[in-house]
Amino acid sequence: MEALFYIFSIIAIFSALMVISVKNPLTSALYIILCFFAIAGFYILLNMQFLAAMQILVYAGAIAVIIVLVIMLLNLAKTKGAIKDFHQIVIGIIAVGLLFLEVILYLNATGEKKPTGIYTNAIINKIGNTQIIGEFLFTKYVFPFEVASVLLLVAVIGAYIFAKK
Amino acid sequence: MNVNDYLIVATIIFCIGAVGVLIRKNLVTIFLSLELMFNAANLGFVAVSEYLNLISGDIFVIFIMVVAAAEAAILLGIAIAFYREKGTINIDDANELKF
Fold it and tell me: Quick one: which H or E segment has residue A153?
């Protein structure tokens, strides 16, 4: 478990760095698929196999295919020199570095919090991962679920209107 | 593994994505960095939800995935429209505030 965690984190962080540092957008897209797979591995380590499958199907499948398709349509693979000027890089890295430092300080400052729910890993494995998510999704969270379907409809119409000539 | 380790990895990926949004010019690469930030947030939700023995965080991750898919469709539509208008997707050319 421990070794798997380190392997997944090294792959995820390395591929995330490559996404923002390589010049070719197609290479970025391939590296982000690697990062999605590493994060799916984290979900399996966290005992959420359904989310890992969703991660691979939705992110590494659908979204990555859309991105690669757009890169192909727009013929972007030959664009070069896609980084901003020096001042913007320095200010951006310093600002995000400060953000990182603050989050790490916050994580170290907060004390232990006791688990509040009843769904331990043993109970989740006994009922079944997919079944428990489905029960929550169709009872307690049924209104957000319906709103999400409306959101997808709006996105389909919006994308069609934007890309229409 | 401790929950803090997962949160630290999620923070590192989130910060890499934020740097990518700030320093890259290419619209598609900025979109990929946004997806990295979404994924880091998802990882944090799942880690904390597993630690607190809850399911709500996992349900929220599904809704974030829905929003990310909708955002992907919209933003790539905008990329196609912008490329048709300008012949490039360098965001420094998006300086007119009109369509």
Answer: helix A142-163
